[in-house]
Automatic annotation (TrEMBL), chain A:
Organism: Pararhodobacter marinus
Protein name, entry field: Transglutaminase family protein
Pfam families (alphabetical): Bact_transglu_N (PF08379), Transglut_core (PF01841)
InterPro entries reported in the protein's UniProt record: Bac_transglu_N, Papain-like_cys_pep_sf, Transglutaminase-like
Domain of life according to the entry: Bacteria
Domain (Transglutaminase-like): residue spans on this chain: 157-222
Entry-linked SUPFAM superfamilies: Cysteine proteinases
TrEMBL record, chain B:
Pfam families named in the record: CP_ATPgrasp_2 (PF14403)
Source species, domain of life: Bacteria
Protein name, entry field: Circularly permuted ATP-grasp type 2 domain-containing protein
Segments passing through the bilayer: none
InterPro entries documented for this protein: ATP-dep_Glu-Cys_Ligase-2, CP_ATPgrasp_2, UCP005522
Species whose genome carries this gene: Pararhodobacter marinus
Annotated Circularly permuted ATP-grasp type domain residues: 70-446
PANTHER family, per database record: BLR5612 PROTEIN, SLL1039 PROTEIN
Amino acid sequence: MKLTVEHVTTYVYDQPVRGVVQSHRLLPTQCQNQSVERWNVTVSDGMMGGSFRDGAGDQVQAWTVTGPVERIEVRVTGVVTTTDCAGVLRGNRELIPPVAWLGETGPTMPDSGLKALAAGASGETALPLAHDLSARVSEAIAYTPGATDAHTTAAEALEQGQGVCQDHAHALIACARLRALPARYVSGYLFTDSDGTGHEAAHAWAEIWIEGLGWVGFDPANACCPDERYIRLGCGADAAAAAPIRGIARGPGSERMEIAVAIASAQQ
Amino acid sequence: MTNYFNEMMENGAVRAPYAHLQGWVDQMPAELRNLKQAEAEALFRRIGITFAVYGEGGDPDRLIPFDMFPRVFSGQEWSRLERGIKQRARALNAFLADVYDRGEIVRAGRLPAKLVYLNEAYEKAVAGIRPPKGVYSHIVGIDLVRTGPDDFFVLEDNCRTPSGVSYMLENREIMMRMFPELFAQNSIQPVEAYPEILRRTLASVAPEKCDSEPNVVILTPGHFNSAYYEHSFLADMMGVELVEGQDLFVEGEFVWMRTTEGPRKVDVIYRRIDDAFLDPLCFRPDSMLGVPGLMDVYRSGGVSICSAPGAGVADDKAVYTFVPEMVRFYLGEEPILQNVPTWQCARGDECKYVLENLGELVVKEVHGSGGYGMLVGPKSTKEQIEAFRAKIEADPDNYIAQPTLALSTVPSFVEEGVAPRHVDLRPYCLVGERIELVPGGLTRVALREGSLVVNSSQGGGVKDTWVLAE
């Protein structure tokens, strides 16, 4: 499937800041699931910093903006051709061994609710177990925009039974790790039909390590595995570590952020 | 009664390295000694070097006791130690380069994967990033104890930012000022070159993108830090800038330092702050001590950070057990320095031995530090031992045990005159383009009679450490 991406993030500061530093995971993963035809990232008034490929295979690009500046626009445009690999991440070159993704972080810290959810899942082998875990998370947390925020933990989202894709992913990661399956957070884009059933185009899901298969994506928010509608950008132990844009502004004052994402199928 | 090795006296005779010191002590009347001791204390006060050694905390304004009686190694004793220390520093760096690359030692089954990759000090953020010259730990502080003429054991490795080297330099400075005649009688190898060698070592690991004379800085958390004195001392001695996070910023591909003449590029950062605080963009978002964006500059080869983020995975207590294995695996050599024998309670047969011999052993928590959650068998009551037995049985994985070591003694000045006191040693090995070790280190001494605890928070002091020319 050929997908076009237009993703604009605007930061507005209520008073001019002295400078901004950002770290981007905004390049599609180099893997067999997708190939980039065209890709461009710009930062208004930005100066490109260093770039490198990290141990999980993500391409990271640093940017700085020298102030005073009141408004910054990060614009991503591109065209990607995707292939359905039945959820399996294929051909991503990475160094970090799966076992390293068993460790907990703050947002994925298990509590009694998550432990009970994880313990209830069944499966004779890792793959059916992972599917069952994902199904249980889908069921336990209803997709409810606005019910949670960026700092909500998996335990909190499960407790209130509501959340968005970030909460689904965190909860599944916590449960998988409880069942000794390495798991991580993936950020990317999702193409959804115009019938209004889709979730946000800037999307997130989880990957679980299945011995023999490799990293397999699970999207509990949509109760499916990633297919050709998904574009993968990068991964991390949790949402903060996998964020497409991490940034800090130097200076007082507060920041307002607006995101506009449009993913379209180029074949129509 | 344990027989402790006395480094000065053996079978009633003075050992060769100490030959000139017997006369020195004999000829020093008590009044002169007291006068000298007071002078030494005044000098330390004037310099401003106070209590906190090895980040132990305690009253920051208290002086750490300085014992004027030096500790002496012969050139021959030192050369074996030197080979052992350098070997260990090489192996530790090879291990770090490996675990942030393909992890061959784990693949080969020589070290458990979880011990490395689920270790708190393992940083995913630096996997696949090769630092300049492949060096991760540029200053390796190896804590050693001695139990006999040729018997040295490594207590622990310090691969991050070992402190205390300012004591090594100041102790020497003060001894030379107070007892110049000793330095005329004994041919003592100098340690004064340490700051210059450190500067050279740091400059030798400048990043690829640095195309001029490297600008080296020391990054300190600030004056409230217990080791701040040492940070400013080393900056002075090396002739480099001492900076705090707020003095640095990232622009484009580099890190810059604010100066009165405008921004100046920084090439090598000798950081004395922990990984977690280095860069709020990569690690703890609430850190005010670090530099936003620093890690991206580091990972893309724009700046060097010494020690490399993630170096701590090599000096973990549980990883320590495997250092001799690292020496064999990476260097194909037999370890020159031995580890203290360690029983892992996680292993059934070893746990059985530990439980049967609690009265003679020291039992520690695997991830504990600072002497908490520790049992010193020979110094404990029956009740304490039984209470600890229950804790081990409940959670054996969490405990390791070691024999109570008969730490060597060195004569020391005490109230009644001169008496043997137990000591340890921390030499500072520098690793850059070359591996170098100044002949000396920091000797800590347990000034309380019979005490085996050299920690300054528990009555420990320091001594000048001499290595004689061969």
